[in-house]
Amino acid sequence: MAGRLEGKVAIITGAARGMGRAEAELFAKEGAKVVVADILEKEAKEVADKINKDGYEAMAVKLDVTKADEWKKVVDQVTEKWGKVDVLVNNAGIFPRSGVEDASEEEWDRVMNVNAKSQFLGIKYVLPAMKKATKGSIINISSIYGLIGSGAAVAYHASKGASRLLTKTVAAELAKYNIRVNSVHPGVIRTPMTDELLKDEQSAKGILGTTVLGRPAEPEEVAYGALFLASDESSFMTGSELVIDGGYTAL
């Protein structure tokens, strides 16, 4: 039986660990040829090697998502090897928690570059390949904090809000090419980024906030949402927000 992404080529950033790794492994199992893109070159290769060992197809590429020349190089590598790009998951991100009084200008610029500028660059540089194929699905990983505030992590919130509206405006711009663009808004997910916040019961209770399911998600639970958006099952969705937050924003 064919997988849900059979024949598709997917680039996933920040795919060496956490949600990105879960997305890469799941997409491969569903038939995609997966590009494991990350600045962590050694870890990215380990993920790609595991996928290939399991009988699926993957390649690892080193990518600093904030640099246009590296994006161009990666897309060129992928199209040379596999001929096309069907799916882009802009997953890479960082999560400093400084408030507005404590955040430095350098921290602000770094977070905006990694979390927001990177998504703009990814879209810009996969666009020619997707236009040539007359289709594509772009998935920007935003956050519940692209929808609501929390009184902390000022640069993170700003970057994820930027991701949300970047998604909507690019969706409107690219619809004429049959390229869909959607955002995913995870709540509290158990990844290396949140290990410190979930280290004990008291700390976990604080970060879970109004999560009505009362627990963090596993990375795979977000990966299945990204899989849906990457697949043809979501063919009438663009400019949408897929919230996967255990009910955090329900109250």
Automatic annotation (TrEMBL):
Keyword Oxidoreductase included in the entry's annotation: yes
Keyword presence, Oxidoreductase: yes
Pfam families registered for this protein in UniProt: adh_short_C2
Stored Gene3D superfamilies: NAD(P)-binding Rossmann-like Domain (3.40.50.720)
Molecular function in Gene Ontology: oxidoreductase activity
Superkingdom per UniProt: Bacteria
Annotated InterPro entries: NAD(P)-bd_dom_sf, SDR_fam
Keyword annotations: Oxidoreductase
Record family assignment: Belongs to the short-chain dehydrogenases/reductases (SDR) family.
Protein name: Short-chain dehydrogenase/reductase SDR
Organism: Petrotoga mobilis (strain DSM 10674 / SJ95)
Classification of source organism: Bacteria, Thermotogati, Thermotogota, Thermotogae, Petrotogales
